[in-house]
Each structure stands twice: as structure tokens, then as C-alpha cells.
Write a structure and sequence with these properties.
- It is a single chain.
- This protein is an all-alpha fold.
- It has helices at about 15-35, 40-70, 75-95, 100, 105-130.
- Helix 1 runs antiparallel to helix 2, helix 1 (about 15-35) runs antiparallel to helix 5 and helix 3 packs antiparallel against helix 5.
- It is globular and about 45 Å long.
- The N and C termini lie far apart (about 30 Å).
């Protein structure tokens, strides 16, 4: 069973965005599974880098959609993207020799961040774009 399951509330009806949401959830599940096994610090950092890179690409896609639609809440939504990316960079920079301790709640945090972001920001955006 996956740590984070796809929820219907994540579905936007925009194929590229839905695919990116699913890909991010899959990476979060990969990260969570890696924390439960004999995974090296380097392997965790590799998955974190993948999550970060996919977040950057996904947010760029959403921001382009928002700009094209002249979305009125663009600044607020973009700020949340920037906050999520800043949080990820802090986590990635904090990986030390005690990395298991510093990442023990990471998958939970990622699930919460993305669930909140999907529910609060993306839902509003995608209602407008439909």
C-alpha cells in the first residue's frame, strides 16, 4: 500500500497537471518507502532532488497556465509555490550524518504540504481553467 494515495480531489481535469500531480505522489511514495529500508543518505538525496526538480517543473507549468488565464490569485498561488520550494531546499540542505532523524517526518510533511496546496490553491485555479 502506498503512503499517499491518489484522491479524486487532486484531479483537475487538465491532463498535464493531473499527470504531474500523480508523478509527485509517486515520488513521495518512493521517498517514504526508501526511508523504511536500508537506504543510503545518497539515495535519499537523489530522490529528494527528483522531487524538487519535478516540483519546479510542475509549478512552472501551473504558473504559465495562470498567466495565460490572467488568474486573479496568481501572486498568492505563486508565493505558495515559492514557500514549498524554499522548504524543500531547507530539507535538502539539512541532510547530515544523522539524516534518518532529520527526514523521519519528511514524507508526512510532503503529503501535508501537497494535500493542502492541491486542496487550497490548485482547486481554485482549476475551477477557473475548466
Amino acid at each position: 500500500m502506498n503512503f499517499v494515495e491518489w484522491k479524486q480531489e487532486y484531479c483537475t481535469g487538465i491532463a498535464s497537471v493531473d499527470r504531474e500531480h500523480r508523478d509527485l505522489i509517486e515520488l513521495i511514495n518512493t521517498l517514504h518507502a526508501s526511508l523504511d529500508h536500508d537506504t543510503t543518505q545518497d539515495q535519499v538525496v537523489t530522490v529528494l532532488n527528483e522531487v524538487y526538480e519535478q516540483m519546479v517543473a510542475h509549478f512552472a507549468n501551473e504558473e504559465a497556465l495562470m498567466q495565460d488565464a490572467m488568474y486573479p490569485a496568481f501572486a498568492e498561488h505563486k508565493l505558495d509555490h515559492e514557500t514549498l520550494l524554499d522548504d524543500m531546499r531547507e530539507i535538502m540542505n539539512s541532510i547530515t550524518e544523522e539524516w534518518r532523524d532529520s527526514t523521519s517526518d519528511l514524507a508526512v510533511d510532503l503529503d501535508r504540504w501537497f494535500s493542502d496546496h492541491f486542496r487550497v490553491h490548485d482547486a481554485k485555479l482549476h475551477k477557473l481553467l475548466k
